[in-house]
């Protein structure tokens, strides 16, 4: 899925594909916006860039100033923040003049670089959500083994690198070499989109790995976590009832505290995944509908609204960290209010 801002405003012509990636195809003469509209669009886009860059930079800085955050599960949030930060630092700023003028004026070489980064970052974001869900799944259903490996930084880094490698190979080689293999370019001058943009069978195959498989995986992990916690909660309540009925003193509270922790893990994961679904699912569904009816059954303004939701996902993610994680909230306070915040070292940083 491509998280670029809406590629068509006014006279721009929107073309989309099965996987959700989109790039603009504009009229040959381009479009000159009224002055007030240029100002409004520029302010909105620049504001989005600032929020995305500042919010995700704060997450990255948190890992620098607070060593207690450096556990395996939190590294995957760092990986997601890096991909979102690069969206705001590179993809959106490069795209803004293209969106406003309707013409790509940065040359074919930079066009390919921008496309590679755009597809890479969007795919990496999806894979990072899957990795976070899988990590939470292991922490709840394989608790003993997970705790023994949670401080293995090398293993976490290998998984982070694997996300970027897989994300690159999904679209990167095709973007770089498609023209050479086919023998000609179909992209007109002053436009910038992938050569395979209208090759439906490639896009449908890629979308299986980019969206549908990750969606099924995340749904499975969340359902497994819920069922595991539900069963353990029943067992815990039954154990407490048995101890009370037999007038026995309550046992160790470790299972109960661990269950409470896992409920928080499930809650935070549900929030993050739900926001992800809200931001991405409408666009995905509309693109499938558009492909089925050749773009004639849904008004264009609905597509534009879903495009903005994709971009907003990169801006919302950083705000979910302090909402769901005490350790991140503590680190953010240390960065933003260094004089007022007194951070006491903790034996173990536990994310919710």
TrEMBL record:
Lineage of producing organism: Eukaryota, Metazoa, Chordata, Craniata, Vertebrata
Molecular functions per Gene Ontology: histamine receptor activity
Matches recorded under PROSITE patterns: G_PROTEIN_RECEP_F1_1, G_PROTEIN_RECEP_F1_2
Keyword terms of this UniProt record: Cell membrane, G-protein coupled receptor, Membrane, Phosphoprotein, Receptor, Transducer, Transmembrane, Transmembrane helix
Membrane protein topology class: Multi-pass membrane protein
Family: Belongs to the G-protein coupled receptor 1 family.
InterPro entries: 7tmA_HRH3, GPCR_Rhodpsn, GPCR_Rhodpsn_7TM, Histamine_H3_rcpt
Transmembrane helix recorded as keyword: yes
Keyword Transferase: no
Gene that encodes it: LOC101166291
Entry's localization field: Cell membrane
Superkingdom of origin organism: Eukaryota
Protein name as it appears in the record: G-protein coupled receptors family 1 profile domain-containing protein
């Amino acid at each position: 899925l491509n998280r670029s801002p809406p590629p068509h405003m006014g006279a721009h012509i929107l073309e989309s594909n099965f996987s959700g990636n989109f790039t603009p195809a504009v009229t040959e003469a381009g479009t000159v916006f009224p002055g007030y509209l240029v100002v409004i669009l520029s302010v909105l886009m620049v504001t989005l860039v600032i929020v995305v860059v500042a919010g995700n930079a704060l997450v990255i800085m948190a890992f620098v100033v607070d060593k207690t955050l450096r556990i395996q599960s939190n590294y995957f949030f760092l990986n997601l923040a890096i991909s979102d930060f690069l969206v705001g630092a590179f993809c959106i700023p490069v795209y803004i003049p293209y969106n406003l003028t309707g013409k790509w004026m940065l040359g074919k070489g930079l066009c390919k670089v921008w496309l590679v980064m755009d597809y890479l970052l969007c795919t990496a974001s999806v894979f990072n959500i899957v990795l976070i869900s899988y990590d939470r799944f292991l922490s709840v259903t394989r608790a003993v083994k997970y705790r023994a490996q949670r401080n293995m930084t090398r293993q976490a880094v290998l998984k982070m690198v694997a996300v970027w490698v897989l994300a690159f190979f999904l679209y990167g080689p095709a973007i770089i070499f498609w023209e050479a293999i086919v023998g000609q370019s179909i992209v007109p001058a002053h436009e910038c989109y992938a050569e395979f943009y209208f090759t439906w069978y490639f896009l449908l195959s890629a979308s299986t790995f980019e969206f549908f498989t990750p969606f099924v995986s995340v749904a499975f992990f969340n359902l497994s976590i819920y069922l595991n916690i539900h069963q353990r909660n029943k067992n815990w309540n039954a154990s407490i009832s048995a101890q009370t009925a037999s007038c026995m003193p309550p046992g160790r509270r470790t299972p109960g505290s661990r269950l409470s922790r896992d409920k928080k893990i499930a809650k935070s994961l549900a929030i993050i995944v739900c926001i992800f679904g809200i931001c991405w699912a409408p666009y995905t569904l509309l693109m499938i509908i558009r492909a089925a009816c050749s773009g004639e059954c849904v008004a264009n303004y609905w597509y534009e609204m879903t495009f903005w939701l994709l971009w907003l996902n990169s801006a919302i993610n950083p705000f979910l960290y302090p909402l769901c994680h005490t350790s991140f909230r503590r680190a953010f306070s240390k960065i933003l209010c260094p004089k007022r915040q007194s951070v006491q070292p903790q034996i173990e940083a536990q994310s919710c």
